[in-house]
């Protein structure tokens, strides 16, 4: 048994600092920039790159790497020809609710613009997901998502034409699809959702208005109606720098 002096408590993890203690110069600049962001507050405009390089005594390339990290993390955002401190990320609950409901709870104004509303024959994969016959007509509804007039995502919804035959005539593409379903007397009973990180395709990045290198959060949802039958398939791409997702968990059950 060791009767010597007690061991000191384990030091808390050092954020971003490797065990060998050698910290890349860009990371030191990033920590200094984080202090500056706190001083400026959301919406505050950063000084120019020339001014920041002089302030921290680093090359422009080093500064840009630090800024790039903060942009990808959603701490900064481009505004015109400048850079400003970003506000908090939008928290979207993982629940069977519409995008409108989730964004509205954040005190933001949701919006959508229509990219396409097409009627097409279901291929084998889509037919299986929607519980229809192959080549049966389905709607493909594609829309850009907005929060306070900022483009933040891209949503593609597939649903059988037989379920909502008048979708192309009496649905407002700027509105909530789930609110439209409820108005038609249709209720969803549940869904399976999967999340992964991806990079947007060039087309998707252009529609959302982001650089292709910006990480995205991709949600795949397959919904069921109140009777448990397949109803819709949704693919939603969210900007990784603007969104986070929340889920309330209950206590584990004993087995």
Automatic annotation (TrEMBL):
Residues 21-88 form the HTH gntR-type domain. Signal peptide: none annotated. InterPro entries: Bact_HTH_transcr_reg (IPR050679), Chorismate_lyase_/UTRA_dom_sf (IPR028978), Tscrpt_reg_HTH_GntR (IPR000524), UTRA (IPR011663), WH-like_DNA-bd_sf (IPR036388), WH_DNA-bd_sf (IPR036390). Keywords: DNA-binding, Transcription, Transcription regulation. It comes from the Bacteria. Gene3D superfamilies: Chorismate lyase-like (3.40.1410.10), Winged helix-like DNA-binding domain superfamily/Winged helix DNA-binding domain (1.10.10.10). This is GntR family transcriptional regulator. It comes from Kitasatospora terrestris.
